[in-house]
Design goal:
Layout: E1 25-28, E2 33-37, E3 40-47, E4 52-57, H1 58-63, E5 71-76, E6 83-88, E7 92-97, E8 103-107, E9 121-123, E10 129-134, E11 139-144, E12 152-158
Antiparallel strand pairs: 1-2, 2-3, 3-4, 5-6, 6-7, 7-8, 9-10, 10-11, 11-12
């Protein structure tokens, strides 16, 4: 699997021992794949050393670090492709480095976990960050990492009370790429 389009063929994948079922939702960054459901996040990628397809349960990694709510959304940062984030209704964003298995937990500062539901939360990916909207708190959060620092809340903006019923979000930006021929 790669951005150049030379996808490795595979016919079966093994569900990790820590997972109970395959996720309902799947997304990709062009190299890796993330699947997520309310209680699990799996990544699928090609191991460059063994050239085999690996399915990793990153929920288990984050759970060890305190994740306790339902998973509402998951995304890869588009340029920091080892960073997969998942948004939980426990009012936290969990960013897992799939290479080091390090987890960064960042609170949704103005969100109330006691009343928060997945229907209120929306996330999309940026180059090295994740914009998040909490409709119930009426806040837009911008989480990012830069200058070698861990992922953190970069800024938050209170939304106009008329903004609601968000169904989807897209964050567009230029992505550096190498030229390739078909």
């Amino acid at each position: 699997m790669s951005m150049e389009g030379d996808f490795t063929e595979f016919t079966t994948l093994q569900l990790p021992a820590t997972a109970t079922e395959w996720p309902e939702n799947w997304i990709t960054n062009g190299e890796d794949i993330v699947g997520y459901s309310a209680d699990s996040v799996l990544t699928v990628y090609e191991d460059e050393d063994t050239e085999s397809i690996v399915v990793e349960d990153v929920t288990a990694i984050a759970t060890d670090d305190g994740a306790s709510g339902n998973i509402c959304a998951a995304a890869f940062a588009t340029e920091d492709s080892d960073a997969v984030a998942f948004l939980s209704d426990d009012a936290n964003l969990y960013v897992v480095d799939t290479e080091t298995e390090e987890v960064t937990t960042v609170a949704l500062k103005f969100s109330d976990a006691a009343t928060l539901s997945c229907d209120d939360l929306h996330m999309t990916a940026a180059a090295a960050g994740f914009p998040v909207v909490d409709e119930s708190a009426a806040y837009l959060y911008l989480f990012d990492a830069h200058d070698g620092a861990a992922y953190h809340l970069h800024s938050s903006v209170e939304l106009d009370s008329g903004i609601g019923d968000i169904n989807d979000a897209v964050f567009m930006h230029a992505i550096e790429s190498e030229a390739h021929e078909h």
